[in-house]
Structures are given as structure tokens and as C-alpha cells.
Amino acid sequence: MAEQIAIKVSNLKKSYGKTSVLKGIDFKVRKGSMLALLGPNGAGKTTTVRILSTLLKYDEGEVSVHGYDVKKQSEQVKSVIGLTGQSAAVDELLTGRENLIMMGRLYRLTKASADSRASELLEEFDLIDAAERPVKTYSGGMRRRLDLAVSLIATPPIIFLDEPTTGLDPRSRIAMWEIIRKLMSDGTTILLTTQYLEEADQLADQIIVIDGGKVIAEGTAKELKAKVGKDRLELIFRSANELRAAVKLLNKEVAGTDDKEQSLTIMINDTNTDVRNVLDKLAKGSINVESMAVHKPTLDDVFLSLTGKTAKVEEEEK
Ligand SMILES: Nc1ncnc2c1ncn2[C@@H]1O[C@H](COP(=O)(O)OP(=O)(O)OP(=O)(O)O)[C@@H](O)[C@H]1O
Ligand SMILES: [Mg+2]
Q: Which end of the chain, C or N, has fewer beta carbons within 10 A?
């Protein structure tokens, strides 16, 4: 059976006035999987999500969601998606429960089903204790959870999460990841945008990196890391003399040294054989290693090598 595609974007272009923001973007999201759209501030993540959720018109290309054309069948698209994140809105003056019920009614649920769905979601998102308080009294993490809960009121098969954890503390971030994992295990198709490489690494089946309006890389976290390549072996010595002797002995294998740390770095292909070889050589030269570590490339390394920039995050709590 052919793979089922939930979201398909081909040659998507969008300009604001003279500023071209998306310069031809392509991607597909398999049904029931998660794609992470990774990119720095201003890369065009929110623009893409707003186009996919029919909130913004695009200039060129083709975009389909759940088989519906975003331009020609916007009503159908709206009925199968949930949107949460930078552009979503909850009413500050209403309570959490009231927000959920209001959204349920907007989605044409009966009063009774809106009520019961609201209770279900408040429970699921750990918001029962705060359910009868106005949203303006919520913490950042509670607000994000409510925001996500609101987008799930009509149990859409596809959801867009626009930077769901930006600005959250590590504990709230992990709690949000758990909620997202639960959604994934229920078979929901998810498009997530993030500036956090670790988030994409943790959650997504597929990652695309956008920068300057273009897709600059795509693959699984593993594939992207493999592009940057090798593991690094770091050896730390007890004295500057030993470091110097080791550099002399290992010679061309040394990729870099750090005099302050009294350490040297070697790029390795195979952890077992390469590390053993290096240690053997040092032992024969009677040089003792104080400590050592093997570092795997991180998605941050990938980002740096692809864009020449580190993935700097600007916290943007409202
Ligand atoms: N309504 C608008 N009018 C003009 N320019 C806009 C408008 N909305 C966005 N832009 C510009 O388009 C570019 C992409 O913005 P977008 O919000 O899609 O980026 P993003 O990847 O979501 O960034 P962030 O991580 O900061 O949320 C930015 O340069 C932004 O200034
Ligand atoms: Mg954005």
C-alpha cells in the first residue's frame, strides 16, 4: 500500500511586500508521524504554519492537508486541524474551562459534549485545580498546556505546534514533551516548529531545517548528525608535559589541543577500535591519560555546520 501522506507542500513561496520569506519549500509529512520544522528566529516557521492552517495566503506552490487543497478547500482543512502556538488565542478573562467550552461550541460540539470534552482535557493536561480560574492568573507552562488543550477540543487528526516549549523551564518542557508523545501514540499527525535542536531530536520522526527561506537539510536526527560526521575522542592529561608528549606521539591523528585543559581531540570512526589503538600507542609511550570522553555530534553541531550559525534562541514570553 502506498504511504499515506497527511501534509504535502511543494514549491511554497511567500513574500511580504518585497521581502521574500519562503523561497520554494518542499516537504511531506506521513500520516501519524511527526515532522519538526527547525530554524532560527525569522526563518519562516510561523509563516509556514499559518499558511498550512489557512490563516495566511501564499504566492506560489501547492499545499494540501489531509488531501484537501489549502487554497480551494479551506473549510475542510480547518475541520481536520488543530493549531497551537505563537498565533493561537485564548481569552485571558475567561477561565480555563470556559475557554475550552467556548472553543468546543465554536467547533459545533453540543453543549453536553463540549462540557465533557473540556473536563477530559483539563484532567489530561493537569489543569483541574486551575480550571475555574481566569487564564490571566496562569503560569507560562499552564498557559501552554491550555493552549494545546484548546486546539484538541475537536480531536483533530492533524495538529500544528508552533514552538510549544519556547520560554518554558526544563520541567515544564519535559511535561509538554510527555503530552506531545501521548498525542503521537494516539496516531495524531504533528507538524512541530522549534528552535530547540534537542526537541526535534527527542520527538520527531523527520526533521527539516529551514534558513533563509529554503530547506537546507532534511532527514532523521540520526541522518543529520551523520552528515556532520565523526565522534570526537577527548583525552585529558595530568601535566602539560604529558600532553606535549602525547601530541608528538599521535602526531597527525590529533585534530586539536587545549593547553588550558591539558587535553587533545581526535576524530574517530569506530569507537571500539580507534579508542583502543590510541590507548595502546600511549601505553607503549608510557604516557598516562587522566580521563577521556567520546562525544557524539549533536544537532547543534549539525546546525552550526549547515548554517554557520549556532541555534541561538530568543526567549519570547508574552
Ligand atoms: N506580517 C508580516 N509583514 C512583514 N513581514 C513579516 C510579517 N510576518 C512575518 N514577517 C517576516 O517574515 C520572516 C519570517 O517570519 P516568521 O514569523 O515566519 O519566522 P519564524 O521562523 O516563525 O521566527 P520565530 O522563531 O522568531 O518565531 C521574518 O523576517 C519576519 O520579520
Ligand atoms: Mg514563529
A: N
Nearest protein Cα to ligand 1, atom 7 = 16
What is the reported pLDDT for 167?
80
Ligand 1 in reach of 45 Cβ (< 6 A)? yes
Q: Which residues of 155-169 are buried (b: 16+ CB within 10 A; e: fewer)?
A: ebbbbbbbbbbbbbe
How is the beta sheet containing 19-30 ordered, strand by strand? 19-30, 5-16, 60-65, 68-69
Ion ligand 2 contact residues with beta carbon within 5 A: 45-46, 86
Please, what is the angle between helix 170-185 and helix 140-151, to 10°?
A: 10
Are both 210 and 244 inside the same structural domain?
Answer: no
Cβ burial of 94 (10 Å; 0-12, 13-18, 19+) is middle
| Residue that is last in its domain, among 195, 225, 255 | 225
Q: Hey, is 215 helix, strand or coil?
A: strand
Name the pLDDT band for 318 (thresholds 50, 70, 90): very low
Work out the angle between the directed axes of helices 111-124 and 96-106 (0-180°, nearest 10): 130
Please indicate whether residue 317 or residue 65 has the higher confidence score (pLDDT). Answer: 65
For residue 87, the CA-to-ligand 2 centroid distance in Å is 8
Q: Are residues 290 and 184 in the same domain?
A: no
- Minimal-distance CA residue to ligand 1 atom 4: 16
Measured in whole angstroms, the distance separating CA 280 from the mean position of its chain's CA atoms is 41
* Best residue for ligand 1 mutational test, from 20, 45, 83, 87 (most atoms within 8 Å of Cβ): 45
Q: Which stretches within 63-159 are classed as H helix? A: 74-80, 96-106, 111-124, 140-151
In a domain, 307, yes or no: no
- For ligand 1, whether the C-beta of 21 sits within 6 Å is yes
CATH code at position 19: 3.40.50.300
CA–CA gap between residue 197 and residue 215 (Å, rounded): 16
Q: Which amino acid is at 318?
A: K
Residue 256: in which H helix or E strand, if any?
strand 254-258
Distance separating alpha carbons of residues 162 and 194, to the nearest angstrom: 7
